[in-house]
Write a structure and sequence with these properties.
With 117 residues, the protein is of the alpha+beta class. Helix content is 30%, strand content 32%. The protein is globular and about 45 Å long. It starts with 6 loop residues before the first strand and ends with a strand.
Amino acid sequence: MTTPRPTTTLWRPTGPAELALVRESGWRAWPPRLPEQPIFYPVLNEDYAIRIARDWNVKHDGAGFVTRFEVDTEFLRRYPVRRAGGRTILELWVPAEELEEFNAHVVGEIRVAHAFR
């Protein structure tokens, strides 16, 4: 019997358009970045993701969602944790050209943890 590889929980605040594309993937992958989006930013803190979804996505998109997903921990070591403000505002910066490989290391489904309207 093989032991499952360790995973890390990540969070992603998202608007309705991006969430629709995740749904189209069968809840398994993040859509490719747009040309003006060179980096994919998953976050390491649920509270930070909630603040963005509630305070930014709702204002700009009419709704905001916080997704939760697991990624192979060993794979994630290539992305240093970046502090984007206070000590709990932590992100990973995944270059757009690496998103397909990143998606291949998502374990299980991407799930909606919170919805704001």
